[in-house]
Amino acid sequence: MSKIFNDSIHGTITLHPLLIKIIDTPQFQRLRNIKQLGGCYFVYPSASHNRFEHSIGTCFLASKLAHQLRARLEEDKMDLKKDKKLSNDMKEKYLKKFEEATMTDNDILCIEIAGLCHDIGHGPFSHLFDRLFNKAIHKKHKTTKEWEHEDVSGDMLDYLFENNPDVRHEFEKTIIEKTIIEKTIIEETIIEKTIICDFEWYKNFIKDLIKGKPSSPKKKNARSYMYEIVANKRNEIDVDKMDYFARDCHGLGMKSNFDHLRFISQCRVMFLERSDNPDESTIAVRDKEEYNLYELFQTRIGLFRSAYYHRVNKAIELMLTDALVLANDHLPIPTDKSLSGKTVKMSEAYQDMSAYEKLTDSIVDVILMSTNEKLTEAKTLIKRIYKRQLYKCVGSTAPKQELTNDNINKIEEKLKENGFHEEDFRVQKLSFNCGKGLDNPIEYVYFYEKDGDNYYECYKGKDSKETSMLLPSTFQEDFAFIYSTSMDTETTKNLKRKWKIIQNTLKQETAD
């Protein structure tokens, strides 16, 4: 039975019964206890939304975009058949491509599941865990492996199906029934034979959709566009970002001028005819949406400047990271085999989903409630956050188009040369960009014209200055923020004074 949600961003959302079964599992419900914006909640009191509602919103938009693409593909088939300018051979060629690209109900259901489960691999305080904590542990112990939450989402999906056989049963039953209906419509006969659901194939398809690319290194084909819906690696414009931009702006009390519903309504499936692989498909958008996309990028930059990379927010996230690193060796996380004494460290939990599913923002309370004296330092840092005794930002570098790890290491070495110890400061690199690093994302977007002669072809976006002189020509700038970790006012002032001297020295070295 379908279920209706009333969402603060999208209004009424109706979800397939299988999606409801997935939502009603411990592996998904844990997202209720993971803040979408990590430490931002300590800066913006209304930014209290969690990964739970964002995942449902992403699922809704994934479904909306998938249905839009399928409907538009059907329209294009009809238009192609009526086109009198094309030869029969050309019509046959493109109709075959369109048929190969057409989404089945099973495909759409998998896309919805990918949208729903794309973030089930997040740990405490969202990106703080897989980025800051991950890197800090790797810096402390070089042998540890760095991982990404998308990979863990795939592992957690495996674990979800393994521990909830009713969900797997419902999945297989739904896929079989839909396959029978689809084959009946196509062949206009009743299928009596049993159709076996290739569960592993569909599960791996969902995991690939979450990552935004097929795991098989096969040549890209007519189905390639499906991997651009949830996680678009081509140009970073996908339903995940559409939801969290709108949701984060709402929670932060900010405004967004990007209209994601309008954007979705203008999308269609097209083929890269002028590329090395003309059989590859992509999601193309109307040419008039170009300015709407620049609004999306401005929203992204605004969110990073005002919230995600807010100086106080980064100070809090650095403190939370330090607390978790201090607690890592002294806070065993139980696994399914915990009765036999099997536990893992937080930094190892990504390898064991039975332990990882226990990691949420509540880990802070677990540390505070612990009687283990070895967690005293971690407790002290957490209490400092609650008392607003935060790391102080004593300065930053000038904006630079790219700040390398060598630049960061040089800053740290200069601070040490001036008498400061590693525990006295933190250097945090921050990159503000539009999603494609130094590049303009528009140049990775494919557009189509409404009344163009070749309506079945698309073209790449152009340089911003060819569109308008008022549009940006630089798409990334990097900063390094320097924080004092000390509660001693004099130590912080001294660090601030020394940083100004170091900064001038670095500028002079660069000039020379």
Features:
512 residues, alpha+beta, four-stranded mixed sheet, three-stranded antiparallel sheet, 19 helices
How would you describe what is shown here?
The protein is α+β, with helices and mostly antiparallel strands and 512 residues long. It is built from 19 helices and 11 strands. β5 (333-334) and β6 (343-344) form a beta hairpin. α3 (51-82) packs antiparallel against α5 (105-117) and α3 packs across α10. The relative contact order is 0.11. The model is unreliable at 190-194 (pLDDT under 50).
Could you tell me the number of beta strands?
11
Share of helical residues: 40-55%
Arithmetic mean of pLDDT: 91
Radius of gyration: 25 Å
Anisotropy-based shape? globular
How far apart are the first and last residues' alpha carbons, in Å?
Answer: 70 Å
Q: Topology of this structure?
A:
Elements: E1 3-7, E2 11-15, H1 17-23, H2 26-29, H3 51-82, H4 88-101, H5 105-117, H6 127-140, H7 149-163, H8 165-187, H9 199-211, H10 239-252, H11 260-265, E3 267-271, E4 281-286, H12 290-308, H13 311-328, E5 333-334, E6 343-344, H14 353-356, H15 363-369, H16 376-386, E7 392-396, H17 405-417, E8 425-433, E9 446-448, E10 459-460, H18 464-467, E11 476-484, H19 489-511
Parallel strand pairs: 4-9
Antiparallel strand pairs: 1-2, 3-4, 5-6, 7-11, 8-11, 9-10
